[in-house]
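lol forgot to send this yesterday, sorry. C-alpha cells for the thing we talked abt
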C-alpha cells in the first residue's frame, strides 16, 4: 500500500500508472515494461522505420475525412488510413489502437522480460471506430493563410506550434494531428489533453468564438 502511494506521487503526470500504462492489459507474470507497447529501442524491419521508434502494429483501415460547408482547410490529403507502417502520420499511430481493430498488445518487437499478453482491443468507450469523418478534423495544414481565410482562428505562432503558451499545442510538420490536442504521456488535464477543458479553454487556444 505504502509502495503504491509513493509510486503515484513520484510519477504524478507520467504515462506510468496512466490509462496508457498497458501493463494492466497483461497477465501478472508477463512484461513489466510501459513504453514497449508503443516504442522500442531497436525496431524490427517489419515496423519499417515508423517514427518515433514505433513498436505497435498499425491499422490499414481507411477512415475518411471530416467535411462541411464551412470548412476552409484543404483536406485533399488528410486521409490517414490505408497506408503501411513507415508511411503513416502521427494520428495513424493513435488509430492503431483507437479504431478498435488491432489489439493494443499486438507488437512488432516483443519485450525481453515476458510476453505482451493475450490480444485485447481498446474498450469500446475509447474506440473512435473505423471512421474519422465524424471527428474534429485532423491531418491538414494549419497555417497563417488558413487562419486568415477562416477569420476566426488563432494564427499559428510558428510551423511547429499553435501558440507560445506552455504547454504548447504542437503542430507536426505544420499539420494539426491528434497529438496537437493530446499528449499521450501526460494525464494531468484528464483525457491526455494538453490543456484544461474547463470553460472550454482548449478550444479557445485556436478558435476565436
Ligand atoms: C500509448 C502509446 C505510447 C506510450 C505507452 C509511450 N509513448 Fe512515447 N510517443 C507516443 C506517440 C504517439 C508519440 C508521438 C506524438 C508526440 O510526440 O506527442 C510519442 C513520442 C515520444 C517521443 C518523441 C517526442 C517527444 O516528446 O520527445 C519520445 C522521446 C517518447 N515518446 C518516449 C516515450 C517513453 C520513454 C515512454 C515510456 C516511459 C513512452 N514514450 C510511452 C506514444 C506512446
Ligand atoms: C498501444 C495502444 C494505444 C495507442 C498507440 C494509443 N492509445 Fe490511447 N488508449 C489506449 C488504451 C488501451 C486506452 C484505455 C485504457 C483503459 O481502458 O483504461 C487509451 C485511452 C486513451 C484516452 C482516454 C484517456 C482518459 O483518461 O479518458 C485518450 C484521450 C487517448 N487514449 C488518446 C490517444 C491518442 C491521441 C493517441 C495517439 C497520439 C493514443 N491514444 C495512442 C491505447 C492506446
Ligand atoms: C481539437 C482537439 C482534439 C483533437 C484534434 C483530437 N481530440 Fe481526442 N479529445 C479531445 C477532447 C477535448 C476530449 C475530451 C472530451 C470531453 O472531455 O468531453 C477528447 C477525448 C478523446 C478520447 C476519450 C474518449 C472520448 O470520446 O471522450 C479519445 C480516445 C480520443 N480523444 C482520441 C483521439 C484521437 C485518436 C484523435 C485523432 C484521430 C483525437 N482524439 C483528436 C480533443 C481532441
Ligand atoms: C489546435 C487548434 C484547435 C483546437 C485546440 C481546436 N480546434 Fe477546432 N478546428 C481547428 C482548425 C484549424 C479547424 C479547421 C477550420 C476550417 O478549416 O474552417 C477546426 C475545425 C473545427 C470545427 C469544424 C468547423 C467547420 O467549419 O465545419 C469545429 C466545430 C471545431 N473545430 C470545434 C472545436 C471545439 C469544440 C474545440 C474544443 C473541444 C476545438 N475545435 C479545438 C483548430 C482547433
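and heres what i got for the seq, position by position
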Amino acid at each position: 500500500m505504502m509502495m503504491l502511494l509513493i509510486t503515484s506521487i513520484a510519477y504524478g503526470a507520467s504515462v506510468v500508472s496512466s490509462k496508457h500504462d498497458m501493463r494492466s492489459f497483461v497477465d501478472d507474470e508477463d512484461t513489466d515494461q510501459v513504453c514497449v507497447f508503443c516504442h522500442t529501442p531497436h525496431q524490427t524491419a517489419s515496423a519499417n522505420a515508423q517514427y518515433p521508434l514505433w513498436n505497435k502494429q498499425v491499422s490499414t483501415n481507411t477512415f475518411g475525412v471530416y467535411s462541411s460547408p464551412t470548412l476552409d482547410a484543404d483536406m485533399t490529403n488528410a486521409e490517414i488510413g490505408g497506408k503501411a507502417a513507415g508511411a503513416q502520420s502521427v494520428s495513424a499511430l493513435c488509430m492503431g489502437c483507437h479504431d478498435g481493430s488491432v489489439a493494443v498488445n499486438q507488437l512488432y518487437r516483443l519485450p525481453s522480460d515476458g510476453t505482451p499478453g493475450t490480444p485485447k482491443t481498446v474498450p469500446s468507450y475509447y474506440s473512435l471506430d473505423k471512421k474519422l469523418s465524424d471527428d474534429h478534423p485532423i491531418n491538414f495544414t494549419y497555417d497563417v493563410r488558413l487562419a486568415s481565410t477562416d477569420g476566426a482562428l488563432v494564427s499559428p505562432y510558428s510551423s511547429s506550434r499553435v501558440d507560445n503558451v506552455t504547454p504548447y499545442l504542437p503542430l507536426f510538420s505544420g499539420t494539426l494531428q491528434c497529438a496537437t490536442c493530446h499528449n499521450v504521456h501526460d494525464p494531468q488535464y484528464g483525457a491526455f489533453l494538453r490543456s484544461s477543458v474547463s470553460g472550454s479553454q482548449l478550444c479557445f487556444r485556436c478558435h476565436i468564438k
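The pocket of heme C (ligand 3) is lined by residues 91, 94-95, 98, 126, 128, 132, 135-136, 138, 178, 180-182, 191, 193, 197, 202 (CB under 6 Å). anyway ping me if u want another try
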